[in-house]
Sequence to fold (428 residues):
Amino acid sequence: MLTGIYQPGTSLLHRAGAGAKLLGLLVFSTVLVAGKSPVMVLAGFVVVAGLYAVGGFGARTLVAQAWPLRWFVLFLLPFQWWTAGWRVAAVVVGTLVVAVVGAALVSLTTRVTDLLDVIARILEPARAIGVDPERVALLLALTIRAVPVISATLQEARDARRARGLERSTRALVTPVVVRTIRHADRVGDALAARGVDD
Amino acid sequence: MIQIEGVSHQYGDRAVLRDVNLSLAEDRIGVIGANGSGKSTLARLLNGLVVPSAGRVLVDGMDTARDGAKVRRKVAFVFSDPDAQIVMPTVSEDVAFSLRRHGLGKAEVAQRVAETLDRFGLGGHADHPAYLLSSGQKQLLALASVLVTEPEILVCDEPTTLLDLRNSRQVAGLLEGLAQQVVLVTHNLELLRGWARVLVINDGQVVADGPAGQSIGQYEELMGAGRPC
Fold:
């Protein structure tokens, strides 16, 4: 859910507090999972689709959130059908897709920093056992930020491998990605220190 | 005012700075030198990112080894790779991140972020994912993110290395207009034309120190510019 896909807007969902949205998502997902019926999944989908409309998003945005699950669904659906019947397959796969699309809606309407603030607040009691909530929130933010950086590094390493005629070499792909990722982590550490994060 | 007193530094057995003594008071100070000459280490000494093996660095009388946190509030640092500096997913969030420990209210943070982004020409990108910005915009964001805290000194370690000519000129123009004291480490000699003071570092020592024209001339001579390879 913390994927940094926030789309700015002024809708009711955009203005709602991050904590309220996270709580709503938790309740919604729990009810969905506990319901265990195709009707409940359908009802959940209708609710989520309606909320996308409230947030100012169209069907295209909704489908885009579910699209990364396509291969997983294509594998899971026939497997569940074969082992447990169509009803279970529809409930399992439907629950998964609706829950993911619902979680994505929270991401679409909430800034990552607001979500991290909520996580830091939730973790506040853990300070008593030595956990630094701000540090955990920062770690999550850095993880999100690292995704496009490492993805770009991977693409460049693929291109470099192809340019050298080593398309089949795993080492020519993995080595530069690992080395550059470690160097990136090192530089991020320096940048954080320079910005006074540890002060 | 930055004072570097008898500073030497080494990584393992390799000495990168040898007995450097400098007093840096000018508004614009350039640092040039060959790769591996020690100029980046010199820059990192200025806000306590690197603590010298010998000697001391004082910023307005504060020792970077003892008062690193206070020094870093005065001395901001920008690196050559903006991707390593931008830590939050969106543009405005990254600028706001710098203000998290300044005890400001949400409204004030939002106002300062908006003002800073406008000043750096990024106002229209506030909610955009940072990774979708161009290289030049990313470097502007890196600058905005450190300057939003209103430091007194800005140290830049090759901030235009990854930029094309247009973006490089944009960053240079921005640096020119800053009210802060700027220490700029660069290979781009064009950026330093007219600067009050340029240091040339070679093999860990300051081998030239003077106005841009004089120092750059000495550096080009040192590097054998114009000689056939």
